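Appendix B. Chain record.
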Amino acid sequence: NPADPCRIVSGIGASPGLAIGPVHVLGPTEVAVPDEPEPLTSGGDRLHAALERTAAQLKALADDTGRRLGQADAGIIKAQSDLIADTDLITLACQLMVEGHGVAYAWQQAVERMAGRLSALGNPVLAARAADLRDVGRRVLAQIDPALQSGHALPDRPCILLAPDLAPSDTAGLDPARVLGLATAQGGPTSHTAILARTLGIPSVVAAGAALLALPAGATAILDGTTGRLYLDPSERDLAAARAWRDALRATQEEEARERGLPARTRDGHAVAIGANVNTPDQVPFALAQGAEGIGLMRTEFLFLERGDTPGEDDQYATYRAMLEALDGRPLIVRALDIGGDKQVPHLALPKEENPFLGVRGARLLLRRPDLMEPQLRALYRAARDCVSAGAPAGKDAPLSIMFPMITSVPEVAALREACERIRTEIGAPEVPLGIMIEVPAAAIQADALAAHCDFFSIGTNDLTQYALAIDRQNTELAPEADSLHPAVLRLVRMTCEGAARHGRFVGVCGGIAGDPFGAGLLAGLGVHELSMTPRDLPAVK
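Structure tokens predicted for this chain:
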């Protein structure tokens, strides 16, 4: 905190680190698109050519992003190529042209209508897809008519960039030597823009509100991407303190990076297993390079969220098999489909709920939708069987484990185990450990009863905090109060560990607190055996 008074703009920390420099404010990127009707034949040809040129442009950008940042982040750009091939989007644009509108106007309207529908669902994952759609729509518009090109020029000197929001493809192209920090009025910490900023190592703040854009250009500021604050016009004393803190932070990060390959062992010899949270096989190499000893959470819902249809059994099998092969015998914990709450999938046609966080989500959905649960379990057991066939161990030492989200009762666990055993027998697969997520207070309170019916626990502290404190974790106004270190949350963690210990069960944590060095120390002291986190948090925790 500054020692001297200064103006503070608060948002949400999206990428950690400290940036010091002059601010540069970007204005809105919207351009006025005139409606100039033309024959459908020529308009259709122009749209087709623009889509082809944009696809080639995105491929080049994805290749460059892959070389600089890795394939996982290149996948964000590749996913945009799928958006411009969306038949519903192209059909809507053509329909507007048939109604007499010009091709550029029709395309912009089609993009805005579809993006608006996604944003209106109130889901941060789909809101990120809406931002991606507008980003790629802007690129196509510039190909239709170069006069409609939108964009911004950065100043010659390094700066802290302030913007209403920033498109993922624009973020991927930022030069960390010129953009010291990034703050946006809109967006969220799970957006593709935030993910790319973390990969680039650019300290970032999101959701800082309209006041951010009213700041005077060129003013000196300190941006703290950890706390989500921007300090404007700090005193010389505060600038000196911030520079010293930034230098100390860099030295600490370099020391952590040197030790990331060592075991996570306390001074008295107690070892804690350290895993990574990932979505896809191509994220595994980076996680291992950062010091992961395995994967403590594979979020399988992203197989459903990142595509326009439901992946079949064979598609899922290929992904799980690739995960096991990438890990080469290291442990893999796969979370069964966790849909509901803040993760909605339009193509599953789930009924709208007034309060999806308290509705049919996680295991509740799986037990009601065997058409979703059984293909996934079959794919997982096939991967376990074929992994054993290839020489990996079977039984409790097998690298694959399966866990189920949003568990509240013993009957749910019993029903899921029964389904697993039936499918395992049909497949001819070995037994694999079956665990459950501890995400609601009811599960933590009766952990001793649940431990008798499963092989391990994984505590999701983000949801456990949400349900224990009755704070929607997507509510930006209450975000500072949704503290996973709240005594009530820590007591629930302790109860979970004590209940698991009565039956000799393993306890992991895969929520955000596991990636915080201070929180990790508390969790280890409470009896947690394994911590799993975002790969970039691994060196600091280890």
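Further analysis of this model is presented in Appendix C.
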